[in-house]
Amino acid sequence: MTLLTRRSGLPCLKRFFMLFVFLILIQPAIAQDTSSQEEDTAENTTNSLPLLVPLVDVDAALSILSESAQNTEEDTPSVTLRDPEPIAPPPLQQIRIMLDWYPSPQHAALLVAEERGYFDREGLDVKLISPADASVPAKLLAASRVDLALSRQPELHRLVDDGAPVVRIGTLIATPLASVLVRSDSEIESISELAGKTVGYSMEDNLDPILDTMLGHHGLHLNDIDPENVNFSLQQSLATEEVDAIVGNARHTVPYQLNQEGIPTRQFLAEEYGVPRHDGLILMANRDRLESQRGNFQRLLVAIEEATLWMVNHPDEAWELMVAKEPGLDSEANQNAWPETLRRMALRPSALNARRYRHFEQFLHERNNSREKHPVGRLAVDLNS
């Protein structure tokens, strides 16, 4: 609070006026005493002037004095206590994040952080953008058209090797999501039985190194199968038996979705067939602009970590909050997949497993999937270390 000290002039002025009035009131007595001593002289004086005694209305004078003092008090500083003026908060810093595809349960940490106000609390205005084409996010990030983009660790290594100015700053899904999926009613019961079969895919890194490594685990290669690019119709192509198998990054959702359609499946997990463990969903930034946005990204990761912990502590409430924000996610299949999706989320999204990135880079280099072996610092950073 602000304290202002002021002094009133009323007491001094009032004492002075009372003394003045007192002197006037005793003047007749003094004059009468003087007249008695000069009585004889006064009798002989016929034209002497009468003593002028002012007639003073004391109450009126005091009233005037009080009013004057009051007016003086109004103009004179006094003691005032008041709260300070509120300080306007700084404007929110905008961060544009391009998703890897349409919103899905794997984006829950971002959706919940936004709905629960964690981004606002960190002074951030986060815009989530869905791409029209899954190949677009990395290109827009490299061109500084967005601030962050979602991708997969294998794709990050390829982008860096191609010279793209991208770097991992956070992890949303900390486990591999890649797998080969077949219908339960098919004759394919092992990877070795994919020989001569049609395998649908949508992303190049799912084909090589993921599928090629899995085939190599059983002595096969990509030229032993018939790969077919089905774009983003993986689920539909398997449901309609357009392909015999699919390879993709949705092991935590697609089996549940196909099962809801009455199509049970079985899958082969990439890390169980020679593919090193890696992060399934990461946040990438533009390396050339990283330092200028470091503070914003640090606060973003704090908000995501808080949202993830809240989801783990309150899974049912988190589900309700997510589908309230994105009603299109409210399906029986997604709800059944929710516990598994939640288990895969990174509890410390900023933390970097340097060994994991070093090992995967070595794996790619040994397979001739990269022209150069890049240091971990070129691939990923931990902004909150």
Topology, pairings included?
Layout: E1 2-4, H1 10-37, H2 39-43, H3 58-75, E2 80-82, E3 93-98, H4 108-115, H5 118-121, E4 124-129, H6 136-142, E5 148-151, H7 153-161, E6 166-173, E7 179-183, E8 198-201, H8 204-216, E9 226-229, H9 234-239, E10 245-248, H10 254-260, E11 265-269, E12 281-286, H11 290-313, H12 315-325, H13 332-343, H14 354-366, H15 376-379
Parallel strand pairs: 3-4, 3-5, 8-9, 8-10
Antiparallel strand pairs: 1-2, 5-12, 6-12, 7-10, 7-11
Write a structural description:
Residues 67-86 are annotated as: Disordered. One of its GO terms (biological process) is thiamine biosynthetic process. With 385 residues, the protein is of the alpha/beta class. The protein has 3 domains: 2-38 and 53-82, no CATH class; 93-174 and 283-334 and 350-379, D-Maltodextrin-Binding Protein, domain 2 (3-Layer(aba) Sandwich); 179-272, 3-Layer(aba) Sandwich (D-Maltodextrin-Binding Protein, domain 2), CATH 3.40.190. The protein contains 15 helices and 12 strands. It has a 5-stranded mixed sheet with strand order 4-3-5-12-6, sandwiched between helices. The chain has a 5-stranded mixed sheet with strand order 9-8-10-7-11. Residues 1-10 and 34-56 have low confidence and may be disordered.
